[in-house]
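Private note to self, pasted from the team thread so I don't lose it. Backbone tokens:
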């Protein structure tokens, strides 16, 4: 028999344990709410002063934030760097999954977000003036039946990449009730296109600019109908952030639209992507598998000696000879790098048809031509201009630079020079030049094709990492 006081103490302990458990359960339910409330009260990041940094949220993608040889690249990346330079501060990019950006920006983990966003209604964020416009397009494998009307999506599952495309498809469901929508969380939009190319995904809605790039990696992709209207692309800021930063961004965007900076940047990332036909890309990818292994070691040896990314040298060689070491033109240019006799003699080449001699000499020659380009020319424009000179000769190219100066055109920008070079074939121009007539338009075609082949090789071939005792040669081209 338990004494009354001991029984009461036992009941009290039981009651205390039950109360403690109820408290812990209630705390577990309230904790996420308390954390959310504390996040909502975070203070906006202050306007960055000289010596400080601007923090930018972004996500992986060929137009947002990517890396080439460990070097960050991307349209949005470059644009945000220009904005930071305008402010006189440094920039720190924080790449995160796309679906996390809005939540993190609302918590003021960054000053702004640059992630290929289209403005959307709401009170949480404000958007800058748009700096580009794009569309959303359905894409399938070429073996799939083409779509002629959106009603054919009845009963199909369409995968969307990003919130804009997902939102467009949800709106489309009102017209096509049996449409199923699934949002991809792929690391990059190109990863979604890879899934379509391999038939892991039957149909997807993707940004047109991404498709323009992706079709050069996956020529079996078939574009279809547009969904919705063209969409603007803008930067995103927290609505309760520092208004001065937002206003400076607006001023910056207006400025780059007026001074052609934006046009030059767009050309850098999108100006060359529509030059090749799908069959050209298919043939090139096939030759990467069959022919390139025979010469890869030679291109990599040339990288060791010159510091030029071996994939850029391979792209140039393919454009020149399609990797045929015995190739000869009617004008006497020969070999896998298509060297003239004068250039070969200057570089000490005894046999232009020897792939090793030709590749090493071609790489050295690119560096020689780069040394002729004024130091004021930034990369990658410096390299593109050297490749143009590789085609028409440094004398003709220098004449084109002088012609650009006479016309008041920025000769440091490849975007401008590729408009000037074709003028070398017109008598009203070449009659006034000591160098005479040149097929400058062919030089433009060569450079634009090399840019595409280089992009494809970057996607399909790994970076060459040299042994420490040999040295380190970083790729010289940054997009």
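Design output:
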């Amino acid at each position: 028999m338990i004494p009354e006081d001991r029984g009461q103490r036992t009941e009290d302990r039981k009651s205390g344990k039950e109360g403690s458990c109820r408290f812990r359960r209630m705390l577990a339910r309230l904790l996420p709410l308390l954390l959310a409330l504390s996040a909502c009260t975070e203070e906006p990041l202050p306007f960055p002063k000289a010596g400080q940094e601007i923090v930018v949220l972004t996500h992986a993608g060929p137009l947002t934030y990517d890396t080439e040889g460990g070097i960050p690249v991307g349209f949005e990346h470059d644009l945000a760097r220009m904005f930071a330079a305008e402010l006189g501060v440094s920039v720190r990019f924080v790449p995160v999954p796309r679906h996390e950006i809005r939540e993190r920006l609302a918590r003021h983990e960054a000053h702004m977000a640059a992630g290929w966003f289209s403005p959307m209604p709401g009170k949480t964020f404000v958007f800058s003036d748009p700096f580009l416009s794009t569309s959303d397009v359905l894409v399938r494998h070429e073996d799939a039946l083409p779509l002629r009307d959106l009603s054919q999506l009845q009963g199909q599952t369409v995968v969307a990449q990003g919130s804009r495309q997902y939102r467009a498809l949800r709106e489309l469901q009102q017209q096509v009730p049996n449409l199923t929508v699934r949002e991809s969380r792929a690391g990059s939009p190109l990863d979604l296109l890879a899934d379509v190319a391999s038939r892991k995904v039957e149909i997807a809605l993707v940004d047109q600019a991404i498709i323009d790039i992706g079709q050069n990696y996956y020529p079996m992709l078939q574009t279809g109908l547009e969904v919705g209207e063209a969409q603007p692309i803008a930067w995103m800021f927290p609505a309760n952030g520092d208004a001065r930063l937002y206003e400076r961004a607006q001023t910056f965007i207006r400025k780059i639209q007026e001074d052609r900076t934006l046009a030059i940047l767009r050309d850098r990332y999108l100006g060359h992507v529509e030059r090749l036909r799908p069959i050209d890309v298919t043939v090139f990818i096939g030759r990467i598998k069959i022919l390139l292994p025979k010469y890869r070691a030679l291109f990599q040896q040339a990288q060791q000696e010159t510091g030029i990314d071996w994939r850029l040298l391979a792209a140039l060689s393919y454009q020149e000879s399609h990797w045929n070491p015995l190739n000869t033109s009617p004008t006497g240019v020969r070999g896998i790098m298509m060297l003239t006799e004068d250039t070969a003699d200057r570089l000490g080449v005894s046999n232009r048809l020897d792939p090793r001699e030709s590749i090493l000499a071609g790489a050295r020659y690119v560096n020689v031509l780069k040394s002729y380009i004024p130091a004021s020319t930034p990369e990658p424009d410096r390299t593109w201009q050297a490749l143009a000179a590789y085609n028409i000769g440094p004398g003709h190219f220098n004449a084109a630079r002088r012609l650009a100066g006479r016309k008041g055109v920025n000769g440091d920008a490849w975007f401008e020079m590729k408009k000037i070079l074709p003028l070398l074939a017109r008598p009203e121009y070449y009659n006034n030049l000591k160098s005479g007539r040149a097929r400058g338009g062919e030089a433009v075609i060569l450079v634009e094709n090399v840019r595409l082949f280089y992009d494809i090789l970057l996607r399909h071939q790994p970076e060459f990492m040299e042994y420490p005792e040999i040295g380190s040669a970083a790729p010289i081209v940054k997009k």
